[in-house]
Amino acid sequence: MTPLYRACWALWVCGTALIVLSWVDVVPVTIGWVGFGVAVVGTLLSFAAQGGARQPPPRVQDQPPNQEQPPDERFTAGRPRDIQPPSP
Q1: pLDDT tens across 64-85, in order?
Q2: Beta carbons of 3 and 45 less than 8 angstroms apart
Q3: Radius of gyration for the alpha carbons in the chain, expressed in angstroms and rounded
Q4: Contacts of 69 (CB under 8 A, 6+ apart)
Q5: With contact defined as beta carbons under 8 Å apart, do 23 and 29 qualify?
Q6: How confident is the model at residue 5 (pLDDT cuts 50, 70, 90)?
């Protein structure tokens, strides 16, 4: 984690704390809006610190794309073919 990214987290946490403190009337509402601005700046800077939005890792395929994929076993339970008739 880079120092800039840590600073972004600190900005976000401080801004969020100011927002919450304004909700419970510890600080004025104006300070809560300042906290909102600080949190937004921290969020936007964090994207710059990470080089933009993160992309999901590329998907690894176990089989060549021209072969049909087997059905996902997690979704086969409860299908009508899996239901056994009751015993008499």
Answers
A1: 555 565 665 555 555 555 566 6
A2: no
A3: 25
A4: 63
A5: no
A6: confident
Question: 7: part of which helix (H) or strand (E)?
Answer: helix 3-23
Mean pLDDT, rounded, for 18-46: 93
Return d(Cα 16, Cα 68) in angstroms, integer: 49
Q: What is the pTM of this model?
A: 0.55
Measured distance CA(40)–CA(14) in Å, rounded: 11
In the block, residue with structure tokens 């997690």: 74
Q: What is the crossing angle of helices 29-49 and 3-23, to 10°?
A: 160
Q: Which residue has the tokens 């120092």?
A: 3
